[in-house]
Every structure is written in structure tokens, then in C-alpha cells.
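Researcher: Watch the backbone:
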Amino acid sequence: MFLQVGNTFAYGPSDWENDINLAKAAGIDAFALNIAAQTDYNDAQLNNAYRAAESLGFKLFLSFDYAAQGPWSSSAVINLLQRYAGSPAQFKVNGASFVSTFEGPDNSDDWRTIRASVPIFFLPDWTSKGPDGFRTTKLDVVDGAFSWDAWPQGATDKTDESDKLWKAAVGSKAYMMPVSPWFYANLPDKNWVWRGDDMWHERWQQVLEVQPNFVEIITWNDYGESHYIGPITGASGIPDGAHKYVDNMAHDHWRDLLPYYIAAYKSGSSPAVTTEKAQLWYRLSPAAAGSNGGTAGNAPWEPPTDANAVVQDKVFFTALVKAPSTVSVKIGNNAADSLQATSPGPFHSSVPFNGRTGAVTLTISRDGQAVIPAVTGAAIAASPPNGVTNYNAWVGGSG
């Protein structure tokens, strides 16, 4: 179980140690270190990361980004892979260093030279080729594939159809499946939203269905695209222009149910619930109540879609219960919506805004008694305070 990490230019050793401890507590096995070519802080931060991981018994692997600042040279890739191959923190498969990419299919032939120089287990993200293009032109230089197709198009929910196509394309080789909770960016070079909504729960059910060899969560700390599940700190590296939708929008509670989901994936069956808990997430105002800020409902290469048609004005929640329970969600001073969790395990559902405003409260009860302390969430407003809709999610939970 992997988690992608980037944006670490301001990190010190203690930031790496803190992140690794949080990830270990959530059940993560390794960080995928996203590194761009010609980045002056790569050496310092990789050394910091590997030292911290070695001291804490954690694993790492390199993910070479060929899109951010152009392609990597073969010699630079070989140098880094050889440098860390002997580290006890290096994640390996059958003695070979696990390595991935973000794009770079035009440089696929470089990997023949690279793997002749250092033992690697290579699962690139060459999603731009599509499953068919990958299978017909790239399969002989890889040990499998990583798909970046983690979000749906338009006003639809994400399915596992693309995962099954990728898994079929690689045949007996390994498939690494992406899981992401959200996507929203309003930056000079990207300004669109993809539907998140129920996805953080539903994708984990799809992982159980697909049973990929590996899973990579996108991401730990990409704040600009709103799919971060790591903490917001002074070293967070929030890009210019993103503070308006990231500040005060912590996503830490999206990690709360990860130990359960990961245990289910690794065992292939639903584990017993040992600690009952709940998480909830939602936007802080109705989508159409403000300007969309130029945000589109799809990426520029996809069919144009109204952003407000993509997202749903709902409070989404998952309750992890030991036995049948009543889950109630209350918005402001309005009557609560009560739903029945009929069996042990995760119960996921949602409650529409329906014009209701105010603080959100979630409770779980059984036989008339509270199961956990009430979870209180940020208030839903009738309209955004600055007049522009924030399509990022506010995330809360019981811990």
C-alpha cells in the first residue's frame, strides 16, 4: 500500500519523520517519492527522506516525474537508483528496487539501459498511452503498469472499468491501482473539478473487487489539486493561488478508516471492527450559490461540462460500526436525517443539503445509547463568503 509524496522543497528532517509516523499509523507500507528532473532540492530531500525512513523502519521508492520539468536522462535515473538501492528503506520486489514514473512513455526505450545497469521492478504510469497502446508497444520493457486514471469524467461516479482494462492489458504482469479522494484545482495552469463525492469509500470497494497487485493513493500532499490526505503544516508547499481553497480545509480525517480498508484489501475479506468511528466530508456551500471562478467540470481534453452539474450538494459520510446502528446527520437547527447501518463494517451514505445551513453533526447510536462522541463539522453557509464557490472538501471525523 503506497502513498505518493511530492512538494517537499521546504521539508526538514522532522517533517519527514512526522509524515512517516502518520503514514505508518494509517497502514501505509511505503511512500512513492515524486521527483522532477532538474530540481535543485532533490538530493537534499531524498537524503532526508531515506534517513528518516531508515530510522523509523519505513519504506520508500522513487517515482520519476517526466511531465513537470521535462524528461529525465538515463544517467540521472541510474545514479539515483544505484545510490539508494542499498538502503534498508528501499522498497524492493524479489530483491529489485521498485520504481515508477509519472508519464514519460516517449522515453520508454531508456529503461532498457536503466534496467541493464541496476536491478529494478518497474511499474510506470504511462496512462496517456491507454491500456491498448501500452500493451502493444510498451509491455516488453516493464514489470507492470500504474494507471493515473483515478477520477471520473463529468457528472458520473468513478467505476473500476478502466482498472479492469489495465489489469487485462498487463496480463500476468503487475497492476498498480490508483485511489484518490478528490480533485479540484483553481490555478493559472489548471482550473477544473472532477467528481469526488462518494469516491473515497467506493474506490476501496472497487479495490476489493479488482484485487490489484499494488495500490497507490493519490496523494499525501498535492494541495493544489485538493487530493491531499496528509497534514497542512508550515512546510506544506501549497502553491501560489491555492491558499484560497486549501486554508482551513484539513483532510487528515480521510486517513481514519485507512487501517480498516487496507486490512480488508490485504486479507481479501472484511476484518472485524475493533474501534467504531466515523468520517464525513462536504463542501461548505451549495455549488451554484457562488461564481464558479472559471472552474470547468472536466479537464480541457474532455467534453465541456458545467462544474455545478458534476458535484453534488451533500454531506457524505462513512461510519465504521461493530453491529447494526443508527447514523444521524443534522445540519444546523434542522431535523436530523437518520439512516440504518444494518450490518457490521463500513456504512456509507449521504444527506442532501436541501437548503439547510449551519454546523453539521453526526452521531452513531445503538439501543438508544451513543456509540461514539458526536462528530461536529464546519458550518454549511447559504453562499461562499467571497462570492466564489470552493469546490474543495471540508473533512472531519471522530479520529
Remarks:
- The mean pLDDT is 96.
- The first strand starts at residue 2 and ends at 5.
- The first helix runs from residue 13 to 25.
- The chain is about 25% helix and 25% strand.
